[in-house]
Write a structure and sequence with these properties.
By secondary structure, the chain is of the alpha+beta class. The protein has helices at residues 13-16, 72-75, 85-98; strands spanning 7-9, 21-29, 46-49, 60-63, 68-71. It is 21% helix and 23% strand. Strands 1, 2, 3, 4 and 5 form a 5-stranded antiparallel β-sheet that branches. The chain is globular and about 45 Å long.
Length: 106
């Protein structure tokens, strides 16, 4: 796939200034992604980023199961905004879930 993709930087701020890479969680647009052109539901490993939050022009899902490292100088086009702390906390929970850092036993 080519083109620009929205994402949330999840790397600790202390590393953002001095590293040439960034750890990000991509945002998938939800509008019209389900069969029949309906909006796709948010999955267990995702966090809803509503339209209007952090400069988003449409609602999307931050996909914690797709965490990746990107080259900030080749891939970052512009910063659209800041994700509120409560959504960052939800994304962090989902990352811990995906990486097996949460005890799921009852």
């Amino acid at each position: 796939m080519g083109g620009q993709r929205r994402c949330v930087i999840v790397q600790a701020n202390a590393f953002n200034e001095n590293w040439s890479t960034l750890i990000v969680v991509p945002i998938l647009g939800l509008e019209g992604k389900a069969p029949g052109g309906e909006d796709r539901a948010v999955r267990a490993t995702e966090v809803l980023i509503p339209k209007g939050i952090a400069g988003q022009t449409k609602s999307g899902a931050a996909q914690a199961n797709q965490i990746r490292t990107i080259d900030r100088y080749k891939r970052v086009v512009r910063i659209l905004g800041t994700v509120p702390p409560e959504l960052i906390a939800e994304i962090e929970k989902k990352i811990r879930l995906v990486l097996g850092m949460v005890d799921l036993t009852p």
